[in-house]
Structure formats: C-alpha cells, structure tokens
Write a structure and sequence with these properties.
About 20% of the residues lie in helices and about 35% in strands. It has about 190 residues and is an alpha+beta fold. A six-stranded mixed β-sheet has the order 3-6-9-10-11-12. Strands 1-2 form a two-stranded antiparallel ribbon. The chain has a two-stranded antiparallel sheet with strand order 4-5. A hairpin with a 2-residue loop joins β1 and β2.
Length: about 190
C-alpha cells in the first residue's frame, strides 16, 4: 500500500499489523512516519523521562498506537509520548492492541508534521473523553504549546524559554523546560 491512498480503517489495521515501518491513519489515508532527527529524539526521550520522574501514572514513549475518534472515521496515531492515569484500556481486536484512554499525549512537531499536530491531531485527540492534556513540543528550541481540557473548553498556553516550567494539572506535576530541552542543538525553524 502506498502512503496517501484512501483505504478503510480495517485495511489500515491489517497493513499496520505486518508493516515493517510505522504508518498513521488520517482521513482514510496512510501517513508514513519519517525517521527522527537528533533533536526530535532527545526532546521526546527527555520529556518522557521528566514525566516518569514526577508522576506515578504510566508514562510511555513512542511505539503505542492510539485510536482517536474522527468525523465519520477513526484516526490512528503513534504519539511521541503518552501518559495514562488509571487502568489502560485497549482495543484487543487490533494487532497490536490499540490504546483507547490516554490522559496526556505528546507530539514533537517537525516541519513535516507541524500542520497535522496543531490541527488534525489536536481536534481528534480531544474527541477522546479520557484526554485531559495535549503537549506539542518544538524540537529545535524550548517551546511547548500546552492544551488542557477544562469544564468551559480547551485552554492553550504557550511556554517558551529554558527558564520556564510546564505545569500539568492532570498529573499534578511541574516540569522545568530545561529538563526537556537540556540536549537540544539549537536551529532555526
């Protein structure tokens, strides 16, 4: 199957179960997952490590597929990191099983994923009833866009700069950005 081809969710799941490379599924199309840059990998790993250090919830890095509701069609993604507080719920009919109830999702934005991270994924992820927070991290400099679900809607907070901290209401933790961005090699967007 070629990325960009319109297929059913069932065809995607059958393909993903045997594919050597990971693909996401958005708007009925396969989206190939590109390799990571050094900064992308370092920021993802350090964000996951910092959260593990500060919470007793399950914190996992990339590799676990998440199903997000869509308008008329499901979406499947492999976020860069995720947190589940409480018991994990899976769709066991898929191979590998698909996580259904993340509490917090993390994406590290790259030039090729930025538009989807800030639009499609933001909308689809918050259709998950379990999701309380979504973080989008820039890979090349200290900057996090934090989206939190509140009774009156989704609030967005921009957190720029190495001296800043991100506070997770869902997890009850505060993490300094210097812990997430300590290994970043600075570049322009």
């Amino acid at each position: 199957m070629q990325p960009g081809a319109v297929i059913s969710p069932e065809a995607y799941l059958a393909f993903d179960a045997v594919a050597e490379e990971r693909h996401e599924y958005w708007h009925g199309q396969l989206v190939a997952m590109a390799g990571e840059t050094y900064n992308h990998s370092a920021v993802k790993d350090d964000a996951v490590a910092a959260l593990r250090e500060h919470t007793s919830c399950d914190v996992l890095s990339a590799g676990l597929r998440v199903r997000a509701p869509g308008y008329g069609r499901e979406h499947y993604a492999y976020p860069d990191g995720l947190v589940v507080c409480g018991e994990m719920s899976f769709d066991e009919a898929t191979q590998p099983p698909t996580l259904l109830n993340p509490t917090l999702l993390i994406e590290v934005a790259s030039p090729s994923t930025r538009a989807r991270d800030f639009a499609d994924k933001l909308e689809a992820y918050f259709r998950l009833e379990s999701l309380v927070e979504y973080w989008i991290l820039k890979a090349n400099r200290p900057y996090i866009a934090q989206y939190e679900r509140h009774a009156e809607g989704i609030h967005m907070r921009m957190i720029p700069g190495m001296e800043q901290e991100i506070h997770s209401t869902a997890l009850g933790v505060t993490v300094p950005l210097r812990a997430i961005y300590r290994r970043v090699r600075y570049e322009t967007d």
